[in-house]
Amino acid sequence: MKICKRAAVFVLILALLLSSIDFIQIVNAAAEEDSLKVANQFISYIVDKKTGRFGISTVEGAPRREGDRMAPLLYKGEKPDTSFTTFRIDGEDYIFGNDYGFLGIQGGMGKSPATQGGVNISVWKLGDVEIRQQLTLIADSSNPDVGNVKVTYTVVNNGKMGKSIGSRILFDTMLGTNDGSPLIIPGIEKPVEYEISFDGEQVPSFWQSADTDISPEVVSYGLVSGWNNEAPDRMTAAHWSGIGATKWDYQADSTVKFASVFNKYNKSDSAVALYWDPETLEPGETRVYETFYGLGLFMSADGNTFLATMTGPDKLELKED
């Protein structure tokens, strides 16, 4: 038995040495026997085998940011369960991965989370609705998305009648040791530390979070829209203790400072939710909800700043003088 184990270790080491630096590493460690972990050299994600819930952390992090190695970007705890995705189906709310057999609804995990390459796929069913969760991690370091995890939900109506379906993806942000990380929203000069919602065209194309708003060491990006995906209808930044206790409906309270312990929850704890409003999905139709979360276009990270933006008119007029 010892010889077999040594041979297996030797083969694994040899394979890693022969591979390029852009390898995707799949880890199923004994200490994490209830989860699957996938990593490249910059970032990793971990998936609960039973529920499909996930957490995201850095590995080496952004190349020019030395202080963000092995740092969480989402709260994980003993297992990833505080970030979760809700589906509103015909007016009722259900959390991806949960079993609703006690309600007399057939379904549950049709396919437990499984990893191939940098992609982890799990399939969850609720009656006639089938939902596939796909977490994608890129290996090619020349790809601008290599430092991000693409989160995709593909919903199919296998029934004989149309169904009203929408989705909410909730990220329980935690940057390094800061569980109440402030947010940077394009168009807002100061870091966002109080609960706020954005609707329709006000929803930003991306958002940022960090361990501190001055000289941050750990910085994350949420890429919301812009790669031919369907943009969410609403985005809410809130205290996790409030919005995390709901499946869908939540009214942002502008007096609650999630980036401080001085609030009604007596602790700092931030979260971001993306909402896609319910729409009718006819029999056989498919709808996709998709977003990125990770290090953003991290090759340009200088280690000191969040973001630099420049705005100007679409065109200039040349006058006679």
Task: Describe the fold and architecture.
This protein has 321 residues and is mainly beta. It has one domain: Beta-galactosidase, Chain A, domain 5. Helices cover 7% and strands 37% of the residues. It has 2 helices and 18 strands. The protein has helices at 2-18, 240-243, and strands at 25-27, 35-39, 43-48, 54-58, 84-89, 92-95, 107-116, 119-126, 129-137, 148-157, 163-171, 183-184, 196-199, 206-210, 219-223, 234-239, 270-281, 286-294. It has an 8-stranded antiparallel beta sheet with strand order 7-8-9-10-18-15-14-12, with no helix packed on it. A 6-stranded antiparallel beta sheet has the order 6-5-11-17-16-13. β5 (84-89) and β6 (92-95) form a beta hairpin. The radius of gyration is 21 Å and the shape is globular. The model is unreliable at 1-22 and 300-311 (pLDDT under 50).
Key structural traits:
mainly beta, Beta-galactosidase, Chain A, domain 5, 8-stranded antiparallel sheet, 2 helices, 18 strands, 37% strand, disordered N terminus
Q: What order do the helices and strands come in, and which of them pair?
A:
Blueprint: H1 2-18, E1 25-27, E2 35-39, E3 43-48, E4 54-58, E5 84-89, E6 92-95, E7 107-116, E8 119-126, E9 129-137, E10 148-157, E11 163-171, E12 183-184, E13 196-199, E14 206-210, E15 219-223, E16 234-239, H2 240-243, E17 270-281, E18 286-294
Structure summarized in a few sentences:
The chain has 321 residues and is mainly beta. It is 7% helix and 37% strand.
